[in-house]
Design brief:
alpha/beta; 16 helices; about 15% strand; two-stranded antiparallel sheet; homodimer; about 325 residues
């Protein structure tokens, strides 16, 4: 993004960016969008539905109009197409829950101490931030990010042509919500999925597998992905949104362990924010590097060139890079 | 702002808005823009100048490129026109310090508890938030916001045609940094300014008055604007960015007290974010209503219609509304 003229508005918008995050989080917590979708349209009606007072509701609603989530016609508020499609809890593409992870106190804490993180080159949160064993943040993650991950997983299923596949054995490492393995299993009734994660997190993945009707083909391995034995004979190993937490040497160690679990013609599938090799874009992928700096000791948003090096060091064949439009996620696939 | 198509990008940008605030705040704290302006251009050079490590600096710089504050050509980073004009500490229009108030822990705390504030219709911070006597936040405010206020005050001086004025006596209520009264005094050597604020805050205003060379015409009244006697015979009473902290009844009480301090042909000058009467814009003024909900028990971004009512109740004549383009501030002026 470039501007030819100095823009005080850009500076002010950035200074106050956290206020727009907070306004949208409050609206989601109060279920404002869901109540508007169900017919409440005025400050008074929404205050009653959301158990708030009109004075507070008015200030919130007017802010959301400015932010592009609500329309207003006189005293009546409505949903913009974005809010209608993505923020109504009863809609099929609801992603509002993601704010409870993306703007959770734990993730935000890293940014509270961002200056220190830049000085030292890694998170300024004690105890390695969110990478401590059984950290409860990942239970929140598993619940909050499931809808968004489900959308990405469907796109991944198309990319992998899962519906036409034979009876693949799939290993989903650091499965979290489990939505990647679960969605592939839903697309192909022959698939068997093994999910690895902390026990407290897999409890959530198990709920999701039951809800998706694939629990009988969903096995769970509890423990650290670095320590628990994976077994072997897998056709696919999924590594969705996991490697970015670690330094390259640690990634290579995990990749080598994953490779040992694959069949000779098996493949590893890495889903990540992947910036271009010079880190000049895409914007969300580049920015994600700072999220990892703020929250982890040695993680990063790795480029495809960096994944190529890690995969080679771990013994894999030549990888390929794939977009998952309209998701900002990208996929790196490498043969064993 | 409206969008015809659902935009996951808008949702994601809002979820992560606080990250852009934090990135810019870190860059300002580390003086990244000032060091680039002075010639440092690479990750390594900037890391050395800012006492950071290259790994951290790289992640921050690449984020700032995405956010519109830096340019990048290979390994060399430069300033966009916005950063060059507004974020170089040695530049004449530096406003970077404002982030230490706008995104201060105290102001952000109100937004951390925004859902509660919407429910109850006022700040969820204990002890009335920042309105407690001698709150140290206002010392930070006085230092941080002085540059931005100085720009607005110059525009106000033009509006009031201060340079052509006779020997006005000016009362600056809740002067803070003092920049409104000080700037008017700088524009007209005949002006006498009396500034009212807490003692700890006026110490900063006194520094600013000395730096501007107007200390001999700058008198200080320490204490609460609601309690300290103002004296009388003023040509102008300034109320810059103060009334928004209070409910309408409290505003009317202060306005009546201010009116009693004016000469018969004196005027009151209110500088504020003033949304349109239906609160449909301008965006920053509408949004400011939520800032007051988050941080004060009964404050608001009042409309001109609401100021008209308050001023009438306080005994003033018919007020007029003025823009201060390119500042988002507006001015309400009423004769005694």
């Amino acid at each position: 993004m470039a501007h030819d003229e100095p823009s005080l508005a850009l500076v002010w918008d950035t200074f106050t960016g956290y206020q727009r995050t907070a306004a949208l989080r409050a609206a989601i917590e109060l279920d404002v969008f869901t109540h508007i979708s169900a017919g409440a349209a005025t400050v008074e009606a929404l205050a009653a539905q959301c158990q708030a007072v009109p004075r507070g509701m008015r200030a919130l609603l007017n802010h959301l109009v400015m932010d592009g989530f609500l329309t207003r016609d006189g005293d009546r508020y409505g949903l913009t197409p974005t809010a209608s499609a993505l923020l109504d809890r009863n809609g099929p593409a609801y992603v509002g829950s993601a704010v409870t992870f993306v703007a959770s106190p734990m993730v935000m804490q890293g940014f509270t101490h961002l200056t220190d993180a830049v000085r030292r080159g890694g998170t300024a949160i004690p105890d390695d931030g969110a990478l401590a064993p059984e950290h409860p943040m990942w239970v929140e993650f598993a619940r909050a990010m499931a809808p968004l991950a489900g959308m990405t997983a469907l796109l991944l299923g198309n990319l992998l042509e899962v519906e036409q596949a034979p009876a693949w054995k799939v290993l989903d490492i650091a499965a979290g919500h489990g939505l990647f393995g679960i969605t592939l299993a839903r697309l192909n009734p022959r698939l068997q999925v093994t999910a690895v994660d902390w026990q407290n997190v897999l409890a959530v993945a198990g709920e999701h597998a039951r809800a998706a009707g694939v629990a009988d083909r969903f096995r769970m391995l509890t423990g650290s992905a670095f320590d628990v034995p994976f077994g072997d004979g897998y056709d696919l190993v999924l590594l969705p949104n996991f490697l970015h937490h670690f330094d390259a040497a640690t990634c290579e160690r995990l990749l080598a362990k994953a490779r040992a679990a694959l069949k000779p013609d098996g493949r590893i599938v890495i889903v990540e924010f992947v910036p271009d090799d010079d880190r000049s874009g895409p914007a969300d992928a580049v920015r994600f590097g700072l999220v990892m700096l703020a929250g982890t000791p040695g993680g990063d948003a790795y480029t495809f060139a960096e994944y190529q090096t890690m995969l080679r060091h771990a013994g894999f064949g030549t990888p390929t890079l794939h977009d998952l439009v309209p998701s900002p996620a990208r996929v790196v696939i490498a043969p064993r």
